[in-house]
Specification:
The complex is a heterotrimer of chains A (300), B (334) and C (332).
Chain A lengths: L13 H11 L1 H18 L1 H4 L21 E2 L5 E2 L10 H37 L1 H15 L3 H12 L3 H28 L2 H7 L5 H37 L11 H9 L8 H28 L6
Antiparallel strand pairs in A: 1-2
Helix pairs in contact in A: 2-4, 2-11, 4-5, 4-7, 4-9, 4-11, 5-7, 6-7, 7-9, 8-9, 9-10, 9-11, 10-11
Chain B lengths: L6 E12 L3 H10 L6 E13 L4 E5 L6 H9 L6 E6 L2 E2 L1 E2 L2 E2 L4 E4 L13 H11 L8 H11 L16 H14 L4 E5 L7 H18 L2 E6 L2 H7 L2 E6 L2 E7 H6 L4 H9 L41 H5 L5 E2 L5 E2 L9
Parallel strand pairs in B: 3-10, 3-11, 8-9, 9-10
Antiparallel strand pairs in B: 1-2, 1-4, 4-5, 6-7, 11-12, 12-14, 13-14
Chain C lengths: L3 E14 L2 E14 L3 E5 L6 H9 L6 E10 L2 E2 L5 H7 L4 E4 L3 H4 L6 H10 L6 H14 L5 H5 L8 H13 L5 E5 L7 H18 L2 E6 L2 H7 L2 E6 L2 E7 H6 L4 H8 L48 E3 L2 E3 L19
Parallel strand pairs in C: 3-8, 3-9, 6-7, 7-8
Antiparallel strand pairs in C: 1-2, 1-4, 4-5, 9-10, 10-12, 11-12
Classes of the chains: A mainly alpha (300), B alpha/beta (334), C alpha/beta (332).
């Protein structure tokens, strides 16, 4: 029997091809590198920071509001200055990034799992179930995320998990809507029909065939929503909600330093602000590149 | 004529009803506005019987219902009315497929394979989940089917996008065969392929049919392909069978004017390669299955139509020992 | 023979991809005479569509025209400035594409699209445009053109849409129309109607047609001459009937032999082993070498074009060579 195998290209997983194309875009590569650096910094925070900003005992109040480069009474240089409580700003920023990443990623991932399963289920099952689920999602989406997050954070009180719960509730609907759209499109494709006609159970087809093919648009939403979670968390802590004062996140640092802006002590707000911007911009750039690569209609 | 064959399609009717949107129904309730649902009469009362090991070619153009009929036979779509059975077992019960004896090969090799699953997983999934083989046996089983369709064992680790159209179609056939079916429904399996690849896949079908003694429902719009692979041919027009009979007889002496007109309008090359310069097109448009014309569906385009054809729907009647035609005035006399 | 309208010489087009450079069209040369219908046939990937697009200058990055000349009535089209090319498109050369749903703008009525096409090349008043459009639609066999004029593309059947696309192409009486698989997506009976209508239309107006297709049988209804392409090269050329009855190139012979109509029912079809090489990895010499039963060591060098009367071929081992074939010989 003739075998026409000459036309086979060497074994390349879709992932491999994806990474290769990603690295071709310089901006995205820079963004992902910066992101990587931030993540490493955040993970190794306790090891590299000269001071633990949570340990109130190490704070020296007389060192408060000192400019960048000041050598503190503890003996080390405050490269980015100190804030109103005498915290080393560099350490506080690194810890703040750590919190932002933790909260942002956790909220993003949980919202993704929840929203994607709900949306895929709705899209695949169809009928009344689909209508019901999607109306709830639509209702949810009509509330501004920030309002929802504010109300929930105020209700649930302070704490990391309460914050994450608020963020998840505010955001899972975006995943659900995207997953629903993708699942509806995939449901009518031939390979789904082929799987169903084997016959395979609808549950198996939904999870094993439809869901993995809904992932591309969902991955794009994940990157955007993680960035949004981080921004939301910063907003909440800027307003004094979310995390307690003893665990300063970037938002709180910015808010603390606000009053000193006009008196020339810019560093207390600016540096945390820049760190936050850097994180969010890099996440968005990476998300953009992923979206462009996963879009089959864009010919490069 | 025996009415139960290996594959038995008994008075299959399939309609697609689209419910008008909510606002329209509301308006109807309030003010009596017409909000009738749109009904597509895809298949209307079709009965077909395939003997074990037989290949029946199903021919027709857009809107004739051949793909829908194929999907009902393969257990993808439930019938609105009528029964489909394979070896006496019902193909679908309550909208769920209940047999593995009949499998489908789809038209588009680019869409019928899950782009995110490796070929080996795609082929093994069905048999493993039905307990036909154990997981440990799946590798060798996949090998067996890959070889049967002319692909190398190394294909199992690859993804669909790494294959050409013809190779993907082979994979689709392997996937169908892995379920150990007795019957296949092939929906335009070579329509998307180049001529030279088409020949390879047709030969593959022929040899598999011989080896595995498969019963096949072969759907195609390409007359020359159907003529080559089928024992019998059924011509469909607007949801009904208009002619049925042995392949050679249909192609050399058709009884229904539509069959005749279709043969006259399809370009082909003669045995010595000479081109057919004179084709006779059928006048008029293909009717829509949403608004079927009264009487015989073909009467508006038929060169022999008479008054009776405009009002009375012709039934599928025997016109010979194993021939049937749905025409009031079949060619060559009743 | 009528005067030469289109002269293509050594046309080369390539696509620059991550995997390398793919030569889609590799030195193709042919003529189209005034009023002639030429069939450009080959399987997918052979470069026939790219050839058609190159003539019109419709190749976009990552593709580019890498060389050669395309002359319409003596005017060189390759390298012509965009403005000038645009003035030619629709006026002197037009194109009909395969999928009418993507050629026609789904949000504009037929009338709006035809008016745009008319106005792009001449000034007309509304009433005149309407007349022009109506007569164009009638000429392609659209019944009840007034009603169709106000319709949107999705309200028309596939065959109707393709007729509208053809009507738009023929609006300004171009000298040359290039059709890229225009009936492939249509039903058999509709295809037959369009084939017959095209034949009459072209004959009446004296327009030249290049009909690109993979379907030998369909092309041969219309075309008086056939050009067969494989892997970006023109491997055979000649009057339709001669090429089909007595092909010179083994690929053409294989293509004809593998048609189901050539074999006895139930018998295995003749198949060309293997598959076409990917355009980025063409073998040395003759691209068909790996699949050809007549291949020998000389096939490692690219065959030059042999010309014999109206036929030409590129093969070191041509078939059926033994004097010119007169039609009177056929059938014996």
């Amino acid at each position: 029997m003739s075998t026409d195998m000459q036309a086979l290209v060497p074994l390349q997983t879709p992932m491999r091809i994806f990474f290769d194309e990603f690295l071709e875009n310089r901006i995205a590569t820079v963004a992902v590198t910066v992101l990587f650096v931030i993540i490493i910094l955040a993970l190794s925070a306790p090891l590299i920071t000269p001071q633990n900003p949570y340990d109130l005992a190490t704070l020296v109040l007389t060192d408060a509001r000192r400019p960048p480069g000041f050598v503190g009474s503890n003996g080390f240089t405050h490269w980015l200055g100190t804030d109103a409580q005498g915290r080393d700003l560099l350490s506080a920023i690194i810890y703040g990034l750590r919190i932002s990443l933790q909260v942002g990623f956790t909220a993003g991932v949980i919202a993704f799992l929840l929203g994607a399963s709900l949306g895929t289920l709705a899209g695949f099952i169809g009928g009344r179930t689909e209508a019901l689920i999607m109306r709830i999602i639509d209702l949810q989406l009509s509330f501004p995320a920030i309002l929802l997050a504010l109300v929930l954070a105020a209700l649930l009180g302070q704490g990391k998990w309460q914050l994450i719960a608020a963020l998840v509730t505010a955001q899972y609907a975006y995943f659900a809507r995207t997953a629903h759209g993708a699942a509806t499109a995939e449901r009518s494709k031939d390979y789904v029909e082929a799987a169903l006609s084997t016959p395979l159970t609808p549950t198996r087809v939904a999870l094993r065939h439809v869901l993995p093919n809904c992932l591309p648009p969902l991955i794009v939403v994940v990157t955007v929503q993680v960035a949004n979670s981080i921004a939301l968390e910063a907003t909440l802590s800027f307003l004094g909600l979310g995390l307690p004062v003893s665990e300063p996140s970037l938002g709180m640092l910015i808010s603390n330093g606000f009053q000193y802006m006009l008196s020339g002590r810019y560093w207390i707000s600016i540096y945390p602000g820049l760190a936050l911007i850097a994180l969010i911009v890099c996440l968005n750039l990476v998300g953009d590149q992923i979206r462009d690569q996963l879009n089959p209609r864009l010919k490069r | 004529m025996s009415s139960t064959g290996f594959i038995d399609l008994d008075r299959i009717t399939r309609r697609f009803t689209s419910i008008p949107p909510f606002t329209q129904r509301l308006l109807k309730r309030l003010g009596g506005f017409a909000a009738s649902p749109t009904v597509v009469y895809a298949v209307e009362g079709v009965s077909l019987s395939l003997a074990h090991g037989e290949t029946l070619g199903l021919v027709g153009e857009s809107g004739c219902g051949k793909s829908t009929l194929g999907r009902v036979a393969a257990g993808i779509l439930p019938a609105t009315a009528g029964n489909a059975t394979v070896a006496g077992e019902a193909v679908m019960v309550d909208g769920r497929k209940t047999t593995t004896r009949i499998q489908m090969v789809f038209q588009d090799p680019y869409a019928s394979l899950n782009p995110r699953m490796r070929i080996g997983e795609t082929i093994a999934e069905g048999p493993v989940s039905h307990g036909m083989i154990t997981k440990a046996q799946s590798a060798s089983d996949v090998n067996r089917w890959l070889n049967a369709v002319g692909l190398d064992a190394s294909a199992a680790q690859r993804f669909p996008h790494q294959f050409s159209g013809g190779q993907r179609q082979r994979v689709a056939i392997a996937r169908a065969l892995a379920m150990r079916p007795d019957a296949l429904v092939c929906d335009e399996p070579v329509a998307s392929l180049d001529v030279s690849i088409q020949a390879q896949i047709i030969n593959l079908f022929l040899s598999l049919r011989r080896e595995l003694n498969l019963t096949m429902l072969f759907i195609s719009h390409d007359l020359s392909v159907v003529r080559h692979v089928s024992d019998r041919v059924a011509i469909m027009y607007l949801g009904r069978i208009v002619e049925l009979g042995p392949t050679e007889r249909i192609f050399t002496a058709p009884r229904h004017p539509y069959t005749r007109a279709l043969l006259d309008s399809a370009p082909r090359l003669a045995a010595d390669g000479a081109p057919m310069q004179d084709i006779q097109p059928i006048r008029g448009e293909l009717p829509s299955p949403i608004h079927p014309p009264p009487g015989c569906a073909f009467h508006q385009r038929c060169a022999y139509a008479q008054e009776r054809c405009r009002t009375e729907l012709p039934a599928l009647r025997a016109t010979g020992k194993s021939d049937q035609a749905a025409c009031h005035f079949p060619l060559g006399g009743p | 023979m009528n005067p030469v309208l289109l002269r293509v010489r050594d046309l080369k087009a390539e696509f620059v991809t991550r995997a390398g450079v793919a030569r889609a069209v590799d030195g193709v040369s042919f003529d189209v005479h005034a009023g002639e219908i030429v069939g450009l046939v080959g399987e997918s990937g052979c470069g026939k569509s790219v050839t058609g697009y190159s003539i019109l200058g419709l190749i976009d990055a990552p593709g580019r025209i890498a060389g050669g000349s395309v002359q319409l009535d003596g005017q060189e089209l390759i390298g012509m400035p965009h403005q000038q090319l645009r003035a030619l498109r629709g006026r002197r050369i037009a194109m009909v594409f395969q999928d009418p749903m993507s050629t026609l703008n789904p949000v504009l009525t037929v009338s709006a699209q035809m008016n745009m096409a008319i106005q792009s090349h001449r000034r007309c008043e509304a009433a005149q445009m309407r007349q022009h459009a109506l007569s164009a639609l009638a000429k392609v066999g659209i019944p009840d053109p007034e009603r169709r004029l106000m319709a949107y593309p999705h309200e028309l059947s596939g065959g109707m849409r393709q007729r509208v696309a053809i009507a738009i192409a023929f609006l300004h009486q171009p000298a040359l129309v290039i059709c890229d698989e225009p009936t492939t997506a249509l039903d058999v009976s509709i295809q037959a109607q369009i084939l017959v209508e095209m034949k009459t239309l072209v004959r009446e107006a004296g327009i030249s047609l290049i009909w690109i297709s993979h379907d030998l049988a369909t092309v041969s209804v219309l075309a008086s001459r056939l050009l067969v392409m494989y892997a970006g090269r023109l491997i055979e050329e000649g009057p339709t009937e001669e090429v089909l009855r007595r092909p010179r190139h083994p690929y053409t012979q294989g293509l004809i032999d593998s048609l189901p109509s050539r074999a006895k029912p139930g018998q295995d079809l003749v198949q060309i082993p293997g598959s076409a090489p990917p355009l980025g990895e063409l073998p040395l010499g003759c691209a068909f070498r790996d699949r050809c039963q007549f291949a020998s060591s000389v096939c490692f060098t690219a065959p030059a074009q042999t010309v014999d009367h109206q036929r030409s071929w590129r093969c070191h081992h041509p078939l059926n060579v033994g004097g010119p074939v007169r039609l009177a010989d056929a059938g014996q």
